[in-house]
Amino acid sequence: MKKRSINILTLILSVAILSACNMPNGSPSPAEQTAIIDRSVAETVAAGPTASLQPEDPVISDTPDPGSSDPATSTPTSTPEADTPTPTNTPIPCNLGRFVTDVTIPDGTTFEPGEVFTKTWRIKNTGSCAWTSGYDIVFSGGDAMSAPGSVQITSGTVNPGQNVNVSVELTAPALEGTYRGNWQLRDPSDVIFGIENSASGLFWVEIKVEEPAPTENTVEITFASRGQVEDGLDVRTNANNAGDTGNDVGLQGFVTFDVSSIPNGATIKSARLVTISHDVLGDPFGNLGCLRAYVDNYGSVGFEDFSPVGVTGALVRFCSEAQLADSNLQKMSSSGIAGIQNALASDDFQIRLQYKDVHTNGDGIADVFRGSFKIIVTYQEP
User: Fold this and answer.
1) Phi and psi at residue 348, in whole multiples of 5°?
2) Any idea what the CATH number is for the domain that residue 246 is in?
3) Domain boundary among 209, 236, 257
4) Higher pLDDT, 94 or 48
5) What pLDDT was estimated at residue 310?
6) Which of 209, 228, 256 is the last residue of a domain?
7) Same domain (yes/no): 227, 365
8) Which domain holds residue 202?
9) The CATH number of the domain where 121 resides is what?
10) Pairing with 2, which of 24, 36, 323, 325 sits 20 to 30 Å away (CA)?
11) Residues 90-128: tens digit of each pLDDT
């Protein structure tokens, strides 16, 4: 109603102004002005509330426009808003730790039996109490690896939020295998507490123990002495020729190697018989067959050391001059390796050189191999 009265008053004033503008020059008398106003009021009342000479000012409504998203015009509803949880402070335990990292010896590190090592963990104090000199780490099961029962964490103070490195000296067990030792924390009142980021509350050291890989060495050994036997006729100590002479007499050579540079107890893994230099007279390989070498512990060479044809168990065999340079054919058989192994006790490895099939072909022409040798031996340290 108040709003309607304001509109009527506004309309009356407007009519009055317009009437004044349309009047002839000269001011109306008071009686005329009163008549004009009365008539305007009557017309306005008769027109009803919808009559207006200009749009009314927009009316602010408490009801929100259905398409409006302005929160300022939203109408409060009886539906409660979701409650926002109120943060609560969970008390931090006095004693609590967190494993940070392995400073040394990551899990799976390999050691030799009996090897001594130092394990260091980095632990963070995540509790509310400072760690003092009364705090320590304690062995909590598994493989102790010669560890002490406990180790002091610090001689000073580790405040909440600070890290500390804790070390313990350990010894790898004597047997091969995987070993793990578990540890926990302990306060000055002997209360054990654990690590928050470990389901078991434990932190640990885990290692593997393996025997060291055998060390292999290779040594070259040049002949120490040599000899030659001409069947039934002559013995020499300045050559090791093999074949036959122009008189159709068989020759066999003998060679000694000093193996004292190989330690007693070593294991011979492989060996080769290699010519240092050589030449031939006639055609020994074509006329007499294959040159073979045999283990022969002859001691000092003599006539009795000349061997008959047809023997077996050669440690190497060369069937042509070219084969003398073949590294595969230079490799000794198991009999040669066993011969060197046995010779470690006496330091002398001795062999005999001969053409196996015949001593001589009887053509009156010398067919002779002449050369010097060395052995290349690979052995494993005892």
Assistant:
1) -120, 120
2) 2.60.120
3) 209
4) 94
5) 85
6) 209
7) yes
8) 97-209
9) 2.60.40.10
10) 36
11) 789 999 999 999 999 999 999 999 999 999 999 999 999
Q: Where are the beta strands (DSSP E) in 4-149?
A: 97-102, 109-111, 116-125, 136-142
Residues 6+ apart with CB under 8 A from 374: 220, 221, 222, 223, 257, 274, 276
Total domains in the chain come to: 2
Whether 2 is in a domain gets the answer: no
Residue-level pLDDT at 162? 98
User: pTM of the prediction?
Assistant: 0.55
**32 compared with 113, residue with greater pLDDT:** 113
Residues 164 and 297 in one domain: no
Structure-block tokens of residue 122: 């980095």
371 and 227 share a domain?
Answer: yes
Give the CA distances from residue 338 to residues 264, 267, 294, 298, 334, in Å, rounded to whole numbers and listed in that order.
14, 10, 12, 16, 6
Q: DSSP of 305-334, one letter per residue?
A: G---TT----SEEESSTGGGG-HHHHB--H
In this structure, are 233 and 139 located in the same domain? no
Non-local (6+) Cβ contacts of 58 within 8 A are none
**What are the pLDDT digits (tens) for 124-165?**
999 999 999 999 999 999 999 999 999 999 999 999 999 999
Contacts of 17 (CB under 8 A, 6+ apart): none
